[in-house]
Design a protein that fits this description.
Blueprint (H helix, E strand, L loop, with lengths): L18 H11 L2 H17 L4 E6 L9 H9 L5 E4 L1 H11 L5 E2 L6 H6 L2 E4 L2 E4 H16 L9 H15 L7 H8 L3 E3 L6 H11 L8 H14 L3 E6 L2 H8 L1 H8 L9 E6 L13 H6 L11 E5 L2 H15 L12 H13 L15
Parallel strand pairs: 1-2, 1-7, 2-6, 7-8, 8-9
Antiparallel strand pairs: 3-5, 4-5
Helix pairs in contact: 1-2, 2-14, 3-8, 6-9, 7-8, 10-12, 10-15
């Protein structure tokens, strides 16, 4: 058996190496998470050569760490078609567009001294309280002007924010929320109340505002996007609520709406979570098969890289930019009403009031 397996080759770095050379070196070694990262790069390259709809889920504090520019590049190249993020990442994205300071600090610091100076810390990134208050004011002014005609999904709210940034912010080119609005990429948040954006929405409502954000619309819109896709791929930065929120689209379709897509076709996760603690924010791809979230029998299309995403994401996305031709953006948000209508037509003959559809979902 061993004689039939590829050998692990000693690898030596060379001057002026590219990210493609680096990934090739990981492939030559093929061991541990360097090997898994190379595997993820090759899988993403394969996905981008297909017509798969690519969703990216974003947890943690990746935007304050500087990932926003990478997301802009990916969206412009058609490498990401849909985003599900924590609200915090979307909130901090606005600082960059508004030319507010987000600075490199040090985690070995006296936090009581920072608090006295009006500075908040995200590990080794520092933001002043003034930045937070000015960003809050910016959001509130936009939200207060939105007509409260009907409930909005978070993607429609974020498009309004992004369009305002495009028209009025000093540096819209630094905002991935603005880029998403420009490129028709829907950006959802799985927990609308769990961020400063949600806090400001609540504050406006407390003062008499009537704008309503409806998370149920997010569930339906993301499920419709998955239903619409020829194939579905997901790249997860970290885990958390964004990961499960997007993967649950498949059970929503078969378990609730009676339309069986069979699970996601491609699954890439960059995480520091460990499955043996009972976490991993929605389980390994193997476990997700049992929930109908990931298609069975396609282990080669599922990769988990156990390492910090601030290290692995730049390699994964840098490799894709270097190796893959741009794709035509799908502009899903521009078509979301039609995509929802298609889902309603597909489920119309099967749906009854109060019926889950579960009894027929696996047939």
């Amino acid at each position: 058996m061993v004689a039939k397996l590829p050998a692990v080759e000693p690898w030596r770095p060379k001057p002026k190496m590219s990210v493609v050379d680096l990934v090739a070196g990981f492939s030559a070694r093929g061991a541990f998470n360097g090997g898994r990262l190379a595997e993820a790069c090759r899988l993403y390259e394969h996905v981008l050569g297909s017509n798969a709809t690519v969703a990216l889920t974003l947890s943690g504090a990746m935007i304050p760490a500087g990932l926003g520019g990478t997301l802009i590049e990916l969206m412009e190249r058609g490498f990401v078609d849909c985003i599900i993020s924590t609200g915090a990442n979307l909130y901090h994205d606005l600082h960059f567009a508004l030319d507010m300071p987000v600075v490199q600090g040090d985690f070995r610091v006296d936090d009581e001294a920072l608090a006295k100076d009006g500075v908040v810390r995200i590990y080794d990134v520092f933001i002043t309280e003034k930045v937070l208050l000015d960003t809050d004011l910016y959001i509130r002014k936009i939200v207060e002007r939105i007509p409260a005609r009907e409930p909005l999904s978070t993607a429609r709210l974020h498009r309004i924010l992004g369009e305002h940034v495009l028209e009025h912010a000093p540096h819209p080119e630094r905002s991935f929320v603005a880029a998403a609005a420009r490129l028709g990429v829907p950006v959802y948040t799985s927990s609308p109340g769990d961020s400063s954006i949600g806090m400001n929405l609540a504050g406006v409502k407390f003062d008499g505002g009537r704008l309503l954000i409806d998370p149920d619309l997010d569930v339906l819109e993301t499920s419709a996007i998955v239903h619409d896709a020829e194939q579905n791929a997901v790249i997860m930065i970290g885990g958390g609520s964004p990961k499960n929120f997007y993967l649950q689209t498949q059970p929503t379709l078969w378990q609730i709406l009676g339309v069986n897509k069979g699970g996601h076709d491609f699954f890439i996760q960059l995480t520091t979570d460990s499955p043996h603690w009972g976490g991993l924010s929605g389980a390994t791809p193997q476990e997700a098969v049992s929930w109908g979230k990931v298609k069975p029998g396609q282990l080669k299309n599922n990769v988990v890289v156990y390492s910090c995403a601030t290290v692995t994401a730049p390699v994964l996305f840098g490799y894709a930019v270097a190796r893959c031709k741009p794709r035509k953006p799908k502009r899903l948000l521009d078509r979301i009403d039609d995509i929802l209508a298609d889902l309603r037509r597909a489920t119309g003959a099967k749906r009854k009031p109060g019926a889950s559809g579960k009894g027929t979902s696996k047939k």
